[in-house]
Design a protein that fits this description.
It is a single chain. This protein is α/β, with parallel strands linked by helices and about 325 residues long. The protein has one domain: TIM Barrel, CATH 3.20.20. Helices cover about 45% and strands about 10% of the residues. The chain has 14 helices and nine strands. The protein has a seven-stranded parallel beta sheet with strand order 1-4-5-6-7-8-9. A two-stranded antiparallel ribbon has the order 2-3. Strand 8, helix 13 and strand 9 form a beta-alpha-beta unit.
Length: about 325
C-alpha cells in the first residue's frame, strides 16, 4: 500500500506523503507548452491530453499521488449546462440559476446521464502509467458549484447564492441536492475508471457562517461522499470557523486545512482520529529556500500529532511558482 493510502487509513508512515493541489499544470513549462491553442475545458475533455497533464507533475516532482486534471465546472458541462472559462476571469454561465423556475429547469437534468466517456478514457490512460502511484479523483463541492451557477461567474462574497438559502430555502436545497448528485456522479466515474482516492474541493465555503454551513451546505457535501467506496479528502478554503464540521460526521477520511491555521491547532479541533492534509502557505513558495524549508519542516512537525498526515499546500499552486521549489519540498518530505 502506498504511503498516501496508509496515511489516509490512519497509519504512521516512515516518510510523509506529499502532493500539491493544482499540481497538474499551472507552474510547469511543459504544461504551458502542451496547452498552446487548446481551451481549458477542451483540454479537460481530451483524454490523452488530460492524462498527460495529470502525469507531468508526478514525473517531475515524484509526488506520492496524481490528481486528475479537470476543472471544477466540468461535471456541469457534462450535464449539459452551458459554461465557458473566460481567461483572466474564470467560469462564466450563459444562463445563471437564480429563480425557482431556473432551479426547476436545471435540476430536471438527470445526473446519471452525465457522459463520462472522455473522463473514463483519461483515467484509464493515466492509471496505466501510474502503476502503484494513487490517482486522486476530484470534484467541486455543491456549494462552490452553486456559487458559480447562481452568480453566473466568479464572485467575492456570493451574495446571491447565500441569499437564496434564506429567501427560498426549498429552491436552494433542491439545487444543492442536485449538485451533490452531479459531484458524486463525477467522482463515481473516476472511481470506476481506476482512481484510488477522491477529494471534494469547496473553494468558496469560507464565505459562509458556521450556522449556514451546517444547515444549508454540510448535508449536501456529506451526501456527495457518503458511501463512495474510496478513501476521501474534504478540503475547503477559509473553513477554520467550522473546521470540525468538515469531517462531515465521519464520512471524510481526511480534512484538508488551509494556510490560515497552524496544523497542530487544526488537529486539536478536528480530533486525532482523522487524517489531515496541508498546510504549506502557497505564498512562501516565493520565499528563498531556507525560509520555505523552515516552514515546511514546521508543518511536518505540527502534523505528527494527527492520525495520519498528508503534506500539501493550504491551497493551490500559484502559476508563477518555480517548479524546483515544489521538487525540493517533496525531497524534504521524503527525507524528513
Amino acid at each position: 500500500m502506498s504511503d498516501l493510502l496508509r496515511a489516509l487509513a490512519g497509519e504512521k508512515t516512515e516518510r510523509t506523503p506529499v502532493w500539491f493541489m493544482r499540481q497538474a499544470g499551472r507552474s510547469l513549462p511543459e504544461y504551458r507548452e502542451l496547452r498552446v491553442g487548446t481551451r481549458m475545458l477542451d483540454a479537460c475533455l481530451t483524454p490523452d491530453l488530460a492524462a498527460e497533464i495529470t502525469l507531468q507533475p508526478v514525473r517531475r516532482h515524484k509526488v506520492d499521488a496524481a490528481v486528475f486534471f479537470s476543472d471544477i465546472v466540468i461535471p456541469l458541462r457534462l450535464a449539459g449546462v452551458e459554461v465557458e472559462i473566460e481567461p483572466g476571469r474564470g467560469p462564466v454561465f450563459a444562463n445563471p440559476v437564480r429563480t425557482a423556475e431556473d432551479v426547476a429547469r436545471v435540476t430536471a437534468i438527470d445526473p446519471a446521464d452525465l457522459d463520462g466517456a472522455a473522463i473514463t478514457e483519461a483515467v484509464r490512460i493515466t492509471t496505466a502509467e501510474l502503476g502503484d502511484t494513487p490517482l486522486i479523483g476530484f470534484a467541486g463541492a455543491p456549494f462552490t458549484l452553486a456559487a458559480y451557477l447562481v452568480e453566473g461567474g466568479p464572485s467575492k462574497e456570493h451574495m446571491r447564492a447565500r441569499g437564496m438559502m434564506h429567501a427560498d430555502p426549498e429552491s436552494w436545497n433542491l439545487l444543492a441536492g442536485w449538485l451533490s448528485r452531479v459531484s458524486r456522479r463525477f467522482l463515481e466515474i473516476q472511481r470506476d475508471a481506476g482512481a484510488s482516492v477522491v477529494q471534494l474541493f469547496d473553494s468558496w465555503a469560507g464565505s459562509l457562517s458556521p450556522d449556514d454551513y451546517r444547515a444549508f451546505v454540510a448535508p449536501h457535501s456529506r451526501a456527495a461522499l457518503d458511501g463512495i467506496g474510496l478513501p476521501s479528502i474534504h478540503f475547503g478554503v477559509g473553513t477554520g470557523p467550522f473546521l470540525a464540521d468538515m469531517r462531515l460526521d465521519g464520512v471524510a477520511d481526511a480534512v484538508g486545512v488551509d494556510w490560515r491555521m497552524p496544523l497542530d491547532e487544526a488537529i486539536r479541533i478536528v480530533g486525532n482520529d482523522v487524517a489531515v492534509q496541508g498546510n504549506i502557505d502557497p505564498a512562501l513558495l516565493q520565499a528563498p529556500w531556507p525560509v520555505l524549508e523552515a516552514h515546511v519542516r514546521d508543518v511536518i512537525e505540527r502534523g505528527r500529532g494527527a492520525k495520519g498526515h498528508i503534506l500539501n499546500l493550504g491551497h493551490g499552486v500559484p502559476p508563477e511558482t518555480d517548479p524546483d521549489q515544489l521538487t525540493r519540498i517533496v525531497e524534504l518530505a521524503h527525507g524528513a
